[in-house]
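Quick question, first post here. What does this chain look like in 3D?
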Amino acid sequence: MAQFDISGKVAVITGGAGVLCSTMAEKLAEVGVKVAILDIAQDKAEDVAEKIKLNGGEAIGVGVDVLNKESLTKARDSVIKKFGRIDILINGAGGNKAAATTSPDLSFFDLPQEAMKWVFDLNLMGTILPTQVFGKVLSEQKSGTVINISSMAAFIPLTNTIAYSAAKAAITNFTQWMSVYFCLENSPSIRVNAIAPGFLLTQQNKYLLEDESGNATKRGQRIIDQTPMRRYGKPDELVGAVIFLCSDAASFITGVVLPIDGGFNAYSGV
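> Answer (accepted):
Ran it through. Tokens below.
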């Protein structure tokens, strides 16, 4: 259907070499989007871009520090030089760290300030700063789409991940704020939305959710019990929502956070 067609558009994806965002990059390229993969690990960003090009897509890999505006500006200039414009910004950079997470060996009262600040900065400022730098292009063009990455932890804080949960809740709030700002101050043709992934089983978190025999850990079983679909999601199951939110089919949608969670957020447990 024509209203879902986003071929020919240019997408910038921060954190683009990560598990989820590299999948988004590859799938977007398959539907004709020109993709700029931005990551602090430039070699990994270039590897994703090369894979896309080998499959017939258009892509570049660019090294960037999402917490450094000079680095972001250089990356923006590289994208404009290559593709001439920017239509889509996906703020995918983010993450957590053990030092900012409570555990039997680390109580809330002993969490290091530096570790919590690292998580806040990477997730929240790592979303705001790219939106300042790349969003300026959208404001000049008077059109474009921003997709932020929220989380189930933004709706109901998850145990242990205090800094991550708070940062993702802030991203949800920023998504709403930025959607209004663009419409009122720049153009109603610039939309800002977010997706909130549920629990996806990847190589990065597999050790937390499954034991060596492939059976669920205690935490993994609690997640499955709280998910009505009774399974984990897969990275490519995020892509349909991203394509929809970037397309003309979502032309009157801005400021929303779309859960992609197998019903996790809707289920009270009873």
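The chain has one domain: 2-198+233-266.
The chain has a mean pLDDT of 95.
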